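tl;dr need the bound structure. longer version: we got a ligand (flavin-adenine dinucleotide) that a collaborator sent over and nobodys looked at where it sits. i said id run it. heres the input, straight from their email, havent touched it
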Amino acid sequence: MTDPAVRLDPAVSLAGVTFRGPVFTASGCAAAGRELAPYLDLGTLGGVVTKSVMRAPRAGRPTPRMAETASGMLNSIGLQGPGIEAFLAGDLPWLAERGIAAVVSIAGHSAQEYGELARRLRGAPGLAMLEVNISCPNVESRGQVFACSAAGAADVMAAVRREIDVPVFAKLSPDVTDIVDIARSCVAAGADGLSVINTLLGVAIDTRTLRPVLSAVTGGLSGPAIKPVALRCVWQVHAALPTVPILGMGGIRSGLDALEFLLAGASAVSVGTAIFADPGAPARVQCELLTALAARGFGAVAEAVGVAHGLTAPREVVAYGDEL
Amino acid sequence: MTDPAVRLDPAVSLAGVTFRGPVFTASGCAAAGRELAPYLDLGTLGGVVTKSVMRAPRAGRPTPRMAETASGMLNSIGLQGPGIEAFLAGDLPWLAERGIAAVVSIAGHSAQEYGELARRLRGAPGLAMLEVNISCPNVESRGQVFACSAAGAADVMAAVRREIDVPVFAKLSPDVTDIVDIARSCVAAGADGLSVINTLLGVAIDTRTLRPVLSAVTGGLSGPAIKPVALRCVWQVHAALPTVPILGMGGIRSGLDALEFLLAGASAVSVGTAIFADPGAPARVQCELLTALAARGFGAVAEAVGVAHGLTAPREVVAYGDEL
Amino acid sequence: MTAAQVAATVMDVRRKGDYVALRLAAPRIAAGARPGQFAALAVGGSDSPMLLRRCFSLAGWDAGGIEVVLAVTGRGTAWLARRRPGDVLDVVGPLGQPFRLPERPQTCVLVGGGYGAAPLVPLAAALRAAGCPVRMALGAAGASRLMAVAAAEQIADTVTVTTDDGSAGRRGRVSDVLPDMLTGVGTVYACGPMAMLAAVARLAAGAGMPSQVAVEESMACGVGVCMTCVLPVIGDDGRTRMTRSCLDGPVFPGDRVRFEAVGTVPADAVGAP
Amino acid sequence: MTAAQVAATVMDVRRKGDYVALRLAAPRIAAGARPGQFAALAVGGSDSPMLLRRCFSLAGWDAGGIEVVLAVTGRGTAWLARRRPGDVLDVVGPLGQPFRLPERPQTCVLVGGGYGAAPLVPLAAALRAAGCPVRMALGAAGASRLMAVAAAEQIADTVTVTTDDGSAGRRGRVSDVLPDMLTGVGTVYACGPMAMLAAVARLAAGAGMPSQVAVEESMACGVGVCMTCVLPVIGDDGRTRMTRSCLDGPVFPGDRVRFEAVGTVPADAVGAP
Ligand SMILES: Cc1cc2nc3c(=O)[nH]c(=O)nc-3n(C[C@H](O)[C@H](O)[C@H](O)COP(=O)(O)OP(=O)(O)OC[C@H]3O[C@@H](n4cnc5c(N)ncnc54)[C@H](O)[C@@H]3O)c2cc1C
Ligand SMILES: Cc1cc2nc3c(=O)[nH]c(=O)nc-3n(C[C@H](O)[C@H](O)[C@H](O)COP(=O)(O)OP(=O)(O)OC[C@H]3O[C@@H](n4cnc5c(N)ncnc54)[C@H](O)[C@@H]3O)c2cc1C
Ligand SMILES: Cc1cc2nc3c(=O)[nH]c(=O)nc-3n(C[C@H](O)[C@H](O)[C@H](O)COP(=O)(O)O)c2cc1C
Ligand SMILES: Cc1cc2nc3c(=O)[nH]c(=O)nc-3n(C[C@H](O)[C@H](O)[C@H](O)COP(=O)(O)O)c2cc1C
Ligand code: FES
Ligand code: FES
């Protein structure tokens, strides 16, 4: 899919693992890749981040599970999934056989469950990296979401770290007073990198039924609407922890959106909700991003990371022809 | 502006004060009202919430101060304003002379400054209510924003409460782990009601200059993009504190948007960013809201407040003809 | 037969009662289309605040293109209804599982509610081509909400029309006339509101015959990656799963859908809390 | 003369070099318009993800309507350029302070950079009507970015054209030719990029004559309520304030604008930190 005019090497390295490109699918927005195969060549991407898998099969929430909002959407899927066993038997091999890098996202309700999932994944063929979805309620702490407590998040990351030696990324929630505090705590507990951000908690009301649209009342807000919040989180985390790799996401639907994330401090990006509008979006975004990087004179993806923080001299306002 | 077909009484009561309608202008989006006079009849609205005023004149931030984002915008005005003295001499009398209810928003850098502002406003003609913008850095607490700390917020509200006897609303920030915690703390310290929500912190990067768009790097995200977050905050606060009146805001640009806020638990609403797209928006939104309430059989604005929480039986899906 | 994402030029936009029929140049989609499948149309352009595709049954196709027929119910359908010939739409299709045709000729009853009639016209044509006599029952709230009656009359052996308000055909619901239509029938097909499908599936089962129903659940992606479009469906192993209607549906055997539990997660579903 | 919000029908859309000229039926705005004022156009329709109006100088008006001329630089201007006759736009205007005309006839120099030429055409007409000889200097990056040269040649006594690349007129900047044009001049008017305005204001002041400059700052509201469009301007009391260019501008006396401090808050500004 890459424009042959682009001379830029698309590869990126995250915590020592090299991926084919800087763009990944976002967890929960690409299942385990297979359904997207008719629409793009998954092998050109950085990799597929799979839907968060839990220990047991899970039926998820009742419908309605989604609401469209202005430049965004709410979802309350409730982590429906087949459980780790079926995932290891079916989903992961499908990716491995095709040489598609798999970033496996895991979720649980206790630090121990996360640790167990990591142990089950140890040595699984095709597994390139773990993404730890800590936006789940912690049954051991009155249901407080792990990602909303520095201690809760650290417990999870430590439990996972002990069990596996592929890179482990903690996926942060923006719904906190101080995201840097959580980020530091995850890194101190052994996270190799950070995925920034998960959805924001939101509500929509149906003005016909006079009730919440979602059966679960609240859902996660994603899409272009949240991009400024996501960029702010990436900015803050990169400023505080400049050597920790960030997988940036939230509202990316074009190569220039992705470029904003790199400039703010992300080393690579995930594309989520945009897939629903355009199933080929991850490949398109990657192609546009590489073209935009080349147009700006970058010789490698990594050169753009964090540039907006201003350690290099600012540029004059330049038109690159890709702005419209 | 009100449709004569609407038989509904538009008045609302907030903490014992009666306002002419359920729609207000949002602080910082209508200056002190005067500039909007060519575009709508301010006298039909609930009132004008004035731009947050500080003790001294303030020049604000350097430009660029704004960035447009998907269904939203970022601003970093930096509370530019004339200071309380000029405000009392010019802005407030303009509203008072025209019989327009003034909700004065105040901001400061210490609890003491907030208290002083309240004292200066005591007995000011035309003053109907105070809105306390606590999204300011607290110089006495390493610059932490008051609204991000239950204790900091309470200090401010207590300082204001002591000085004045009009209703006092605390304006909450969504950028916290637990907004209900802050809400409770404000109410315990004497707030009569809560304004929900202020902007979300965001960043935008300019892909031509490779630098942040805003001179201040971060800015406040507003507009329809944030409506689901705002509704979630209103929902949570109303669920926890059902008797505390809420002035809801965040992304309202139509009467049905406003209706969502009432159903989620707001007693009245403010319209902000939509004014920039449509200077007549507050009056239009109020007219649309009253029409929508009437179409749904409500006899008074207050009857719709909190209905989505389901204390009454749910309705069948009904088409009211105003959905498109 | 795999789905494709294509840029489809609008060839024709026609008002039909309360509906708008869009004909789109999409040969790749037409080539693989089968009755009961649907297409997912992007709305609002590339910076649209509407992120999600809108799904419509394939109401017809030929070598050059496809037709969808839509009711304007919100912003996306309103935007689609404003398209003009020459405009280009981003369309993904054909999506989902089609109706299964009987293995050998038998009389079939096709029941459509509102725009649920859309996929029944190509289905009727396919059944007739396979030698099956076709009886159709088309219902709607009122005359202007009836769809495809003329087309049905051309293809089907009999067409019975009902409206809730009696403004066309018999007053009442399609499920009222259905029992009288089932004598000697092999399979019942249905598309329409969930309550209608439930009634049809129940009546068919009561008469001892199989039914196939095309359900409609809110879909965010249409291609199987988001899990918003699920409903409780009984699998071959007898266990209920929250099943994607975009990928494993929209057509299901009527006796597999847990209609009474739609909008819930039944306690006996795999992975239920 | 107060501004109004109107639904204006597009009467004509014409490409002019790199620009697009839109003629809009807006008699109420036309009735109050004066040279240097601007209009704010909503873009994208009522559910648009673009919340903010786009501001354009009034490039001309008559009893029935107004004209704006725009360069496509982003999504909003691209959307406007796609409008067709008959489309309806939501327009607020006339906004801002106009150029002040001299109290008695005197020779005036009008300097325009790029689309900064737009308001100079009606200004030249007004000056000529008031008996003032008019010399115009119009500059741009290249020939296709020049605007209104033909119109200027009809109205002004002399027109000097410059382009950065020499593709039309003299190679160089308008500020290069300006010194030679100032002999015997009463007032200098300018509209264009900030750097050009700064040079013009400096040259005019050096030659001992007043200037009036129309600035362009990013505007969120255009009507004075948001405080995004400020720049440091010296008031009558000699003190610098962060001044709204939409309400107190866009035209300011050249010697009042603190050009060197644009993009900062000067330490001596009222309320500076
Ligand atoms: C498989 C399938 C086939 C369909 N076939 C037809 C058809 O042939 N003709 C027709 O008129 N309609 C059909 N629909 C319904 C059609 O998709 C919706 O009416 C349409 O999406 C509404 O979009 P909107 O923007 O007008 O409404 P909005 O309410 O603004 O839509 C908001 C979101 O909710 C989703 N949504 C809203 N209503 C429905 C619904 N009833 N079903 C699914 N998603 C919904 C939209 O896709 C969108 O994502 C079909 C739906 C499905 C799932
Ligand atoms: C008083 C005034 C008069 C103007 N007159 C003209 C004119 O006659 N012809 C013309 O072509 N342009 C004119 N401009 C500039 C024009 O407003 C911008 O080019 C336009 O707003 C860009 O919109 P966009 O959606 O294409 O770009 P985007 O970059 O997508 O715009 C994003 C946001 O930034 C604002 N913005 C971006 N660039 C500018 C800019 N240069 N000035 C002000 N706001 C900006 C937009 O209004 C919008 O809110 C004028 C600006 C002002 C303030
Ligand atoms: C339907 C849906 C399901 C999601 N499921 C998951 C999930 O299982 N695990 C997870 O970590 N994030 C999940 N997310 C969050 C996304 O991975 C991503 O962080 C977020 O949506 C922001 O990116 P986007 O705006 O590009 O979608 C989900 C998002 C959506 C829209
Ligand atoms: C340009 C701008 C300036 C603002 N200034 C203030 C302010 O001075 N005080 C305040 O409490 N809120 C301020 N706000 C926040 C709004 O009052 C409101 O809470 C927020 O914008 C969400 O509502 P909206 O989406 O309708 O704009 C400002 C918002 C904007 C866009
Ligand atoms: S609509 Fe996304 S999985 Fe069915
Ligand atoms: S643009 Fe809003 S105050 Fe000038």
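gonna send this back to them w/ a short note. Residues 72 and 78 of chain C are 5 Å apart (CA to CA).
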